[in-house]
Amino acid sequence: MLGSDMCRVFSEAYKVKASDIDLNEEWLHYADVRHKEMMRKSIADFNPHLIINLAALTDLEDCEANAKESLITNYVGAKNLQEIAQELDVPYVYISTAGIFGGEQASYTEDDTPDPTSAYGRGKYEGERHVLHHYKKSYVFRAGWMMGGGKKDKKFVAKILKQIDEGATELYAVEDKQGTPTYTLDFARCLYNAVTKKLPYGLYNMVCGGHVSRLDVAKQIVKELGKDIPVYPVTSEFFKEEYPAPRPACEALVNKRLDFFKENIMRDWKVCLKEYLNER
Q: For the chain, what are the domain ranges?
């Protein structure tokens, strides 16, 4: 999801080499972050000025069922690329998540201490801790509820749209989970802005404006599409069989450091959702 928009934004000014383990686009090169020597060769052949690690296992249920594999990808993969960046003496970017928090607070800044409750959250938190501790030329950017990526979208917005496309006459969305939507295109542009303007290395929250529930997002999708479909509020128990992995009650982020440096160009989530739906 994010990789397609990152390539789109960075390719406007730079030569980009994009790799994946799933070669679903002709411009992708095969590489696997879990295998350090493979990554070292792939990266050294390109001789980059910047390394951006977008690789992650993000399906929470899959991560719970395969906790070891989740840790290898989300932590060891991050460590592998950080060490290669350090060898080449180039800046390194690691993408983290709001899912590293426990959910007890109303919102979280970069100053708050993570307390992950899921295998996914633990792996991402270990990744960001290692990167920030071991290499001074590192950026960690935390995203919230991701939306974007067009045909690659597998997240909440895509799931609601799929139900609508299939003729759903009613929708259900949880009201007991709070967060901050994050449009992949805005995230890519803001990240590009941060690294090209050479903001100080370190940790940044990077989410759209707005603190909402899943119910709010679903209702806004229906409104933007002009559909007369009722959206009913439910609790997380309603989807417990389908989504049993633990999820924080609140994972809303505040872009405190971006605001401090006056470089927060993330737009309001409703503006971004409208643009994304129009683009789709």
A: 2-279
d(CA 5, CA 187): 9
HSE-up of residue 124 (Cα within 13 Å, Cβ side): 29
Structure-token pair, residue 4: 């397609």
* 204 pLDDT more than 90: yes
Q: Strands 138-143, 202-205: parallel, antiparallel or unpaired by DSSP?
A: parallel
Which residue matches tokens 């994009």? 18
Residue 170 CB coordination number (10 Å): 9
What mean pLDDT do residues 104-123 have? 97
| CATH H-level, domain 2-279: superfamily | NAD(P)-binding Rossmann-like Domain (3.40.50.720)
Q: Answer for the pair 143, 96: CB distance below 8 angstroms, yes or no.
A: yes
- Report whether 173 contacts 212 (CB < 8 A): no
- Helix (H) or strand (E) holding 251, with range, is strand 250-251
Q: How far is CA 246 from CA 156, 202, 233, in A?
A: 16, 28, 19
The better pLDDT of the pair 274, 152 is held by 274
Q: Which is more confident, 279 or 130?
A: 130
Helices (H), 166-243: 184-196, 214-225
Burial class (CB in 10 A: 0-12, 13-18, 19+), 184: buried
pLDDT the model gives residue 168 = 96
What single string gives the DSSP state of each residue in 88-149? HT--EEEEEEGGGS-S-SS-B-TTSPP---SHHHHHHHHHHHHHHHH-TTEEEEEE-EEE--
